[in-house]
Design goal:
- The protein has 294 residues and is of the alpha+beta class.
- It has two domains: 5-97 and 276-293, no CATH class; 112-184 and 213-271, no CATH class.
- It is built from twelve helices and eleven strands.
- It has helices spanning 5-16, 18-23, 26-37, 67-76, 112-121, 123-132, 196-207, 232-237, 239-242, 249-264, 266-272, 281-284, and strands at 42-43, 46-50, 54-58, 63-65, 85-88, 93-99, 139-150, 155-163, 171-179, 184-190, 210-212.
- An eight-stranded antiparallel β-sheet has the order 1-4-5-6-10-9-8-7, sandwiched between helices.
- Helix 1 (5-16) packs across helix 3 (26-37).
- The longest helix has 16 residues, at 249-264.
- It is globular.
């Protein structure tokens, strides 16, 4: 069992958001913390298995949950309990999942302006759906990190700023797609906007030790392998939606996915909102402590 209650408080504040954390009673917080502590954590330095397709070398101090335990973690933190591996760093955590869509060709030029324009145009329909579900509105603010593909590492990254009406604090989703032979690994970073740039740097350092297993590497593609019906642009805009048809590509992307992408991110968005309340010496002083930490 993990010993550091300060670390657990930080993880839960990061996962639940400061508002949700503050609204919970002390007994509920303790129950949630105990449940997270009871999960089967793997601690670095070690090599963790990301499903059956890839591995990740954990640095000292990092903590990891496999897909089974990761689903429990997501449920405990108010997210949909999907099969995601979870990596926890100092002030951030990340969710990993593999999509077996086939080999994604990387020869497509990314038009970041066109992607952003499409997303902004669909703010209206997306927010209409959010209102039907009793959710607050979110508006596309712009790129924090414009979509960028590294042909050497086969990593596609971007960070999108979202903003709620009347809020001066953006929600920023940092996402990486790591391309393999039979699909791609998705890695979504959960961090506070005030520490995001530093956390992205730390996260990217960890991703240098991500590797697809032998036979699953992008370079091991062979004729006859399944090839995805979309490219890099669709991975940013919402890859799976493009499979619906081979014609009218942008109609599919804009009309279907863009109307629902903010709904898909709803759980993650809740995670991002106001999450750095327990980070930093001044802020930690106001956090509940166990007697052993005093």
């Amino acid at each position: 069992m993990l010993k550091s209650s300060k670390w657990m408080l930080a993880v839960l504040a990061l996962a639940l958001g400061a508002t949700a954390w503050g609204a919970e009673g002390e007994s509920t917080r303790e129950q949630r913390r105990a449940a997270v502590q009871a999960l089967k954590w793997q601690e670095g330095p070690a090599t963790a298995a990301l499903g059956g397709n890839a591995t990740l070398k954990l640095p000292a101090g990092a903590r990891f949950l496999d897909e089974t335990e990761g689903a429990k973690f997501l449920k405990l933190t108010g997210n949909l309990p999907s099969a995601n591996s979870i990596l926890v760093g100092d002030n951030w955590w990340a969710a990993f999942s593999f999509s077996s869509v086939g080999y994604v060709k990387d020869d497509e030029k990314i038009d970041a302006d066109a992607l952003l324009k499409s997303m902004k145009e669909e703010d209206g329909p997306a927010n209409e759906e959010r209102r039907k579900l009793g959710m607050g509105e979110l508006h596309t603010d712009g790129w924090h990190i414009a979509p960028h593909y590294d042909s050497a590492t086969k990593h596609l990254e971007w960070a999108l700023r979202l903003r709620a009406p009347g809020s001066n604090t953006p929600t920023i989703n940092y996402t990486v797609r790591l391309l393999g032979r039979s699909g791609y690994e998705s890695a979504t970073l959960v961090s506070d906007p005030s520490t995001l740039d530093a956390d992205v740097k730390a996260f990217k350092a960890v991703l240098k030790d991500f590797d697809f297993k032998s036979g699953e590497k992008y370079s091991e593609f062979k004729q006859g392998d399944r090839v995805a019906e979309f490219g890099l642009m669709a991975l940013v805009a919402g890859g799976a939606a493009a499979v619906a048809t081979k014609t009218g590509f942008w109609k599919v992307i804009v009309g279907f996915f863009a109307a629902f992408w903010k709904l898909i991110l709803a759980g993650v968005v809740a995670v991002f909102w106001g999450i750095a309340k327990l980070f930093g010496k001044k802020k930690e002083q106001n956090a509940p402590q166990d007697p052993q930490d005093k």
